[in-house]
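User: Structure with C2E, tokens only please.
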Amino acid sequence: LQAALRARPEFQLRPGRHPGSLTTRTRARLALESDIRKGLERDEFYLLYQPQVDAQSGRIVGVEALIRWRHPEHGIVSPANFIPVAEESGLIVPMGEWVLKEACSQVRRWQQRGVHPPRVAVNISARQLRSTNFLDNVAATIAMTGIVPDLLELELTESILMDPEARQVQGLYRLQQLGVHFSIDDFGTGYSSLSYIKRFPIGMLKIDQSFVRGLPDSVNDAGIATAVIAMAHNMQLEVIAEGVETLAQLEFLRQAKCPKVQGYLFSRPVTAGDVEILLRAGQIDLPATTAID
Ligand code: C2E
Ligand code: MG
Ligand code: MG
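Assistant:
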């Protein structure tokens, strides 16, 4: 019997794993999954918003909604620590629906409080986009909250767009017809076949922060950033640089004619109340840089 069991890989003993028990990693993942489920029920998630600004004037042209989790024991948890598990388990679907509803409701609240709301960008994950009721849910959320669809932007990643189903592509075009905008997040880090730019209703490229980080000194990063900005201009797409932290980076991007910027240099992700204060001020005071022609 021992020999027979040894021949069957599922019965072999591996470190940290015994027949009938789970690996430590699986256990941790399941615990996290159950915590996320409870967190959704108990309203432990909330959104922060990071301003996107006009690189020349500092005017706020949009905000990106970024999810946070106030965990009862672990405190504030960043999305990097739970989005992957939410994806794997499918919980990203209800979570994503909540994010969309909350972001659209917030646009409405800003309007009701008499501030001119910026366009709000919402991150959409692969599994969420593939879920059968995605299109209907977005349309229903817009209808329910009564926001102008032009105020909503959905951020997709290159990998999401790699092997789309016809149904999905049609869905995105239908949302575009309603007035919804689409951008490519983390542009340049994915599979970058670029053919998706023709096949999807993409309006904006977001230059990934990994390319912004090396500006202006890294020849590679400078080349990539300049090329993406030029490509966007040539294809009549909008373009924004993410993760702008220093004046030197801003200066490079201004000279390279990058119209929009987002990053800690202007504002960290902040609460809806803080966004309102910034909106009432009208713009974020940008540090002056030299020679803008
Ligand atoms: P992302 O969509 O690319 O968002 C940008 C991330 O960069 C955010 O991290 C933001 O806080 C951070 N960031 C902004 N400016 C700077 C800067 O100047 N320097 C540096 N070092 N970082 C900066 P965050 O909020 O931790 O989100 C991480 C990722 O989690 C997001 O990347 C996005 O992929 C995902 N995520 C966040 N919220 C959601 C959501 O509601 N749904 C989904 N599906 N994913 C989300
Ligand atoms: Mg994003
Ligand atoms: Mg990004």
